[in-house]
Design a protein that fits this description.
Layout (H helix, E strand, L loop, with lengths): L1 E3 L5 E9 L5 E4 L5 E6 L4 H10 L1 H10 L8 E4 L2 E9 L4 E4 L3 E6 L5 H28 L8 E5 L6 E4 L4 E5 L7 H13 L8 H10 L3 H11 L7
Parallel strand pairs: 2-4, 6-8, 9-11
Antiparallel strand pairs: 1-2, 3-4, 5-6, 7-8, 10-11
Helix pairs in contact: 3-4, 4-6
Length: 227
């Protein structure tokens, strides 16, 4: 189905009929327009509905017109396009190529993405700490407290006396092997606060390719412009 816009152009609309009571209209950041409608609603009625929403559709398409760079984020070392969908639901969905953000007010999509990102970062980094702590430390003491912070010059920091490790919010942009290197690096600081011989010895013993991982992290971090 197509509708004509005020500038004389036309736009295709993807229509999906399903068991529902009302019509749902969505405009995605890439300009796609999608409609979900009740099974029994005729195409003519759907077209009439769309015609009444032309102004709304055009304004949202304009709001979503951003450059490709602005619509791309790196997650676990891979680039993903960012798609924002105006919807009553609030949340984030991740597939092989895109991160889709659902929110009632599209202009607030960054807040929704940040909340999701922090939860993902905390869960993934906690998993890695749980894996590596008994291997690296094995001192019988409680595992360190983990915090996620936005930092521009450090991937992580460790306060050994307080047994607290702060990981950079942007660390999840990096490849998984690089993230793992940072986790091991910071865990070793619980034992060796500096970067002396003792620190490097434990690091090499537990991760023989740490130099390659560090170099890759430094190299690829330029792609997302941090640290």
């Amino acid at each position: 189905m197509k509708i004509d816009l005020s500038d004389g152009s036309s736009i295709a609309v993807t229509v999906t009929k399903k068991a529902m009571k009302s019509v749902r209209l969505r405009v995605c950041r890439d300009g796609k327009v999608c409609v979900s409608a009740p099974t029994g609603l005729s195409d003519a009625r759907i077209y009439e509905f769309l015609c009444t929403k032309k102004g709304w559709i055009e304004s949202h398409i304009k709001d979503f017109q951003k450059s490709t760079d602005e619509n791309t984020v790196h997650y676990m070392g891979s680039p993903y396009s960012v798609e924002v969908v105006k919807d009553r639901r609030t949340g984030v969905a991740l597939n092989e190529e895109a991160i889709t953000i659902f929110c009632a007010r599209p202009e607030e999509y960054q807040t929704v993405l940040e909340d999701w990102w922090k939860k993902q970062a905390f869960a993934y980094l906690t998993e890695l700490v749980n894996k590596w702590y008994p291997i690296v430390c094995g001192d019988g003491k409680p595992e360190p407290q983990i915090k996620i912070r936005k930092m521009r010059t450090l991937w992580g920091s460790c306060t050994s006396k307080e047994r607290t490790i702060r990981f950079n919010y942007y660390l999840l942009c990096a490849p998984q092997e690089c993230i793992e290197y940072v986790v091991v690096h910071e865990l070793i600081h619980l034992i060796h606060p500096d970067h002396g011989i003792g620190f490097r010895s434990v690091l090499t013993q537990n991760m023989q390719d740490w130099k390659e991982r560090k170099q890759r992290l430094e190299r690829e971090s330029r792609a997302f412009g941090i640290v």
